[in-house]
Design goal:
This is DUF4229 domain-containing protein. Keywords: Membrane, Transmembrane, Transmembrane helix. This protein is 80% helix and 0% strand. By secondary structure, it is mainly α. The chain folds into 2 domains: 1-35; 39-95, no CATH class.
Length: 96
């Protein structure tokens, strides 16, 4: 099977990996007191939100090729489904 068949899975895995790496960097910076820690138990939530804010623009830039491949895969599947629906509709019209 071609690697194009797994474009969505690859993009999702890379996106999660980028988030985990961003969270690790945020955690190290918080541990070293480079960035301020939040109050009380909200520290984890603060670090998760900061990791999301960091990983989102990075994934937009770094994962462009994978996102385009995933988009092509989805468009191809939607086109095939439309063709099937049109063929079935044509068969039903012929029966009536």
């Amino acid at each position: 099977m071609s690697s194009h068949n797994f474009a969505t899975l690859r993009y999702t895995a890379l996106r999660i990996g980028l988030f985990v790496a961003s969270f690790a960097v945020v955690w190290v910076l918080a541990y070293l007191h480079v960035i301020p820690l939040a109050v009380g138990a909200s520290n984890t939530v603060w670090m998760l939100l900061l990791a999301i804010v960091i990983s989102a623009p990075l994934s937009f830039v770094l994962l462009r090729k994978q996102r385009d491949a995933m988009s092509e895969q989805i468009v191809a599947k939607v086109d095939r489904q439309r063709e099937r629906l049109a063929a079935h509709a044509g068969q039903e019209d012929g029966l009536g």
